[in-house]
């Protein structure tokens, strides 16, 4: 980042001395006003709950232009990544800053493949859960539990530890998600197969059984690989900010990623893909397309808490480029699987069309986001709706790690410790209970 020759002058109408604040320019995107010395100079804090106007860090990893609907991973447009790369190429790009050459690609694939197994003790954690436990409850527990097994890679300030824990997490997430699924259906766990691709291995662990050979469907393999790629990273979203703040205390990488898993679970964030599919099924049950009008009326009713799940975004005030690519993948997979008449996909496209012509959504710049179509593809692939957010966590693990490592490698990083505007009781004395 480079200092701008423009200064921001903050003045107060009560005659308090004004101060100049430096501005910094990025390579692209909005400039920032450096307020790090504001409290020391004025005794005042800024106030920005929800961080609508706050840059928490500087980063070189992912850039989003919400007005244009643009998403770049290390400068490469997501459309080109989706067209020309696979998920492990994307992991290499996010972790190390560039796409791999042929040798690097081969080495990286082998490195990840050789870390896909989890310690045999991990399976005993699952036995503590009910079979109908939500997969994200299981994943929050399992990812945190990984820190109990890898004492040789828990020092986040050690670059070698950061490197090996990154590979371990990327490699083991599919194994853990598949274990959570197998546990919920009462089937035996399937061990990873190092001769399969990253997505192929996940499909095999999910749907194969020890009783017969299982062949991975290449169409599903490619679709899942793209779903992983589209979810890999997304700037300073809620779960990434959680991982950064958690990691800033110096905790181990597994614990920081577990915090990200917990945050992603929320329906306003990664839990929206599960909520969006449930919403579509509810509309379908109520009568399908002819009930969309009633549903939209509920959404627009200020007294109702109903939201159009999979729509809207804090940053995108245009179409989420990932939603476009996800809709394409939807169409490809459903057609290939002979499900092009899938009623939910048709309903989703009708709902999208109606919403995008309705002033409530247009005036608020509410467009489909990545979660609107991802559930339809995952459902077509055979992934149960309760597992959608765990798949999102599997894919986002690389982004969380890349962002965590970027923060920890910055010599200027400090533990994150926001302040507050206190509006509670002023100092007062305890009254003896007999007099209360
Ligand atoms: C992800 O940050 C990221 O990058 C996240 C993510 C990533 O890759 O990490 O992109 C992944 O989380 C995508 C978002 C998934 N969430 C959903 O689809 C849930 C539904 N969407 C909303 O909850 C909402 O749009 C948010 C949470 C995503 C964004 O909310 P904001 O930015 O805080 O905006 P807001 O709630 O202040 O909404 C502004 C207006 C409000 O109306 P008014 O008060 O102005 O009258 O838009 C309305 C909201 O009521 N609104 C919606 C709506 N989203 C916003 N109304 C109906 N349906 C919606 N989905």
What does this structure look like?
With 436 residues, this protein is mostly helical. Helices cover 49% and strands 6% of the residues. It contains 18 helices and 6 strands. The strands form 2 sheets. Strands 1-2-3 form a 3-stranded antiparallel sheet. Helix 6 runs antiparallel to helix 11 (253-264) and helix 14 (321-336) packs parallel to helix 17. The longest helix is centred in the middle third of the chain and has 27 residues, at 159-185. It is globular, with a radius of gyration of 24 Å. The model has no long low-confidence stretch (mean pLDDT 95). The structure holds s-citryldethia Coenzyme A. S-citryldethia Coenzyme A binds next to helix 17.
């Amino acid at each position: 980042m480079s200092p701008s020759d423009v200064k921001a002058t903050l003045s107060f109408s009560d005659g308090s001395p004004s101060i100049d604040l430096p501005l910094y320019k990025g390579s692209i995107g909005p400039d920032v006003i450096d307020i790090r010395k504001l409290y020391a100079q004025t005794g005042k804090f800024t106030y920005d709950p929800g961080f609508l106007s706050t840059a928490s860090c500087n980063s070189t990893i992912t850039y989003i232009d919400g007005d244009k609907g643009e998403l770049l991973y290390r400068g490469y447009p997501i459309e080109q990544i989706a067209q020309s790369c696979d998920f492990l190429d994307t992991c290499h790009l996010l972790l190390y800053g560039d796409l791999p050459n042929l040798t690097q690609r081969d080495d990286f694939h082998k490195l990840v493949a050789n870390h896909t197994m989890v310690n045999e003790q991990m399976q005993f954690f699952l036995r503590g859960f009910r079979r109908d436990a939500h997969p994200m409850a299981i994943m929050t527990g399992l990812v945190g539990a990984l820190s109990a097994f890898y004492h040789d890679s828990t020092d986040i300030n050690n670059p070698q530890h950061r490197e090996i824990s990154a590979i371990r997490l990327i490699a083991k997430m599919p194994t853990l998600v598949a274990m959570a699924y197998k546990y919920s259906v009462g089937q035996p766990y399937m061990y990873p197969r190092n001769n399969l691709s990253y997505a192929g291995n996940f499909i095999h662990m999910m749907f194969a059984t020890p009783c017969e050979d299982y062949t991975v469907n290449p169409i599903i393999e490619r679709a899942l690989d793209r779903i992983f790629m589209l979810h890999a990273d997304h700037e300073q979203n809620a779960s990434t900010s959680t991982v950064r703040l958690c990691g800033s205390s110096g905790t181990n990488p597994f614990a920081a990623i577990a915090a990200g898993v917990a945050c992603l679970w929320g329906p306003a964030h990664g839990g929206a893909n599960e909520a969006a599919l449930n919403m579509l099924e509810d509309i379908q049950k109520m009568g399908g397309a002819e009930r969309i009008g009633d549903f939209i009326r509920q959404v627009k009713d200020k007294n109702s808490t109903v939201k159009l799940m999979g729509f809207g975004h804090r940053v995108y005030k245009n179409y989420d480029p990932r939603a476009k690519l996800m809709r394409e993948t939807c169409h490809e997979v459903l057609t290939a699987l002979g499900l092009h008449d899938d009623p939910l996909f048709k309903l989703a496209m009708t709902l999208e069309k109606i919403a995008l012509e309705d002033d409530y959504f247009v005036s608020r710049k509410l467009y489909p986001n990545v979660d609107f179509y991802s559930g339809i593809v995952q459902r077509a692939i055979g992934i149960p709706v309760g597992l959608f957010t765990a798949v999102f966590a599997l894919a986002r693990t690389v982004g969380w790690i890349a962002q965590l490592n970027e923060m920890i490698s910055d010599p200027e990083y400090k533990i994150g410790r926001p302040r507050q505007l206190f509006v509670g009781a002023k100092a007062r004395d305890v009254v003896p209970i007999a007099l209360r």
